Amino acid sequence: MQITPAQSSDRESWNIFVKNNYPPVGVFMQTWEWGEFKKDWGKKIERFFVTDGDQLIAVFMLAEHSLPFGFSYGYLPRGPVLAKTLDQQKINAVFSFIRDWAIQKHSHLVFLRLEPPVQEEVVAELGKKHFLRPDYYIQPRYNLTLDLTKPEEEILASFHSSTRSNLNRAERRGVTVTLKNHQQDVSQSDFWQMTKDTISRNSGKNLYPPRTYFNSMFKVLPALGNETSPDQLSIGTFCGHQHDKPAATHYVLFFGDTATYIYGASATECLKSKVTTYLHWQAAREAKARGFKYYDLGGIDEKLWPSITTFKRQFGGLEFAYVGLIDIPLQPRLYKLYNFLKKLRHLGKS
Q1: What DSSP line would sit under 41-85, residue for residue?
Q2: Contacts of 55 (CB under 8 A, 6+ apart)
Q3: Are 129 and 123 in contact (CB under 8 A)?
Q4: How far apart are CA 27 and CA 305, in angstroms?
Q5: Is 186 helix (H, G, I), strand (E, B) or coil?
Q6: Is 213 strand, coil or helix?
Q7: Any residues with CB less than 8 A from the CB of 303 and at least 6 apart, and which?
Q8: C-alpha distances in angstroms, 19 versus 222, 322, 325?
């Protein structure tokens, strides 16, 4: 096996491999465009091919995250991406090879953090080979996704009766949805005003990234257009209005077979219009019309987000579960210190 850096000329082949070999949920995080966005936001990003002879068997994007005292660690968001043709033995060999490579080539990192989009049984034996499994996770381990390959009437029939009722209520109360181009005619001022309402309803807890994050994302990612290719990550801005008044905004990423809801905000005074339910449905319909197979409503977790989880589950759909984090200590003593300090910070907040 061999690991080689990807070059700028490899964008198309990179995205095609990711599209063809990734499960429905989380695919956008290993696209070329997502890496470019993270670069613009200030992250150090590297991309690598894993080959076996003349066969491409895996790819991964490596993002460096700073730690105190000048140290850092490497994070593979929802990666590495493995070829679907690999059997269990070959998958184990790929993980072991990445570990050996990281020890040799990235010794400046304290540890390497993997987040493979695979099921638990695929990595069940990794703990025997110096891989560690943190008891927390970064990306949601569970996502809820609508199957858009079914007829629209069948998708609607799978919704909870209250969800179908809310869709009808939204139309009766004058809710409309427009897909807009963020690079042309969308002002973020409405979105940021509505985030204040959303944060207030969440007991003041802010789950939004800083504005610089959104600025870089909108700067780098192309807007969803009529000729947008599924081989290129793009973003759709779905604006909901009630009687021409801004009521909610959803941002949805499009790539491969999946449209992925990532962020949204809504005006408190318009919540009774059920605009957020209506926005999800119209975004899913847009994705289906464009030939996408899945609409990912995002993470669910009964303990962390009980109300959001209940809301999303009323859409029916498919639930996907992934293994979470796998750490490879490159400097074991510093890795132990990192975990010790992390636990202290957690105790200090509790």
Answers
A1: TT-EEEEEEEEETTEEEEEEEEEEEE-GGG-EEEE-TT--EE-TT
A2: 83
A3: no
A4: 23
A5: coil
A6: helix
A7: none
A8: 18, 18, 22
Strand order in the sheet with 234-242: 175-180, 234-242, 245-255, 258-266, 294-299, 142-147, 318-321
Sign of CA dihedral 325, 328, 334, 335: positive
Q: Band of the pLDDT at 339, cuts 50, 70, 90? A: confident
Q: What is the pLDDT of residues 156-209, one digit of tens each?
A: 999 999 999 999 999 999 999 999 887 666 667 888 889 999 998 887 778 889
- Give the amino acid at 40: D
Identity of residue 37: F
Phi/psi for 90 (5° steps) reads -70, -35
Cα angle: 135, vertex 112, 53; to 5 degrees: 125
For residue 40, give the 3-state DSSP assignment.
Answer: helix
Residue 269 neighbours by CB under 8 Å, 6+ apart: none
Long-range pairs for 53-58 at CB < 8 Å and ≥24 separation?
55/83, 56/17, 56/83, 57/1, 57/82, 57/83, 57/86, 57/90, 57/94, 58/82, 58/83, 58/86, 58/94
DSSP letter string over 265-325?
EE-GGGGGGTHHHHHHHHHHHHHHHTT--EEEEEE--TTT-HHHHHHHHTT--EEEE----
Question: What's the first-to-final CA gap in the chain, in angstroms?
Answer: 46
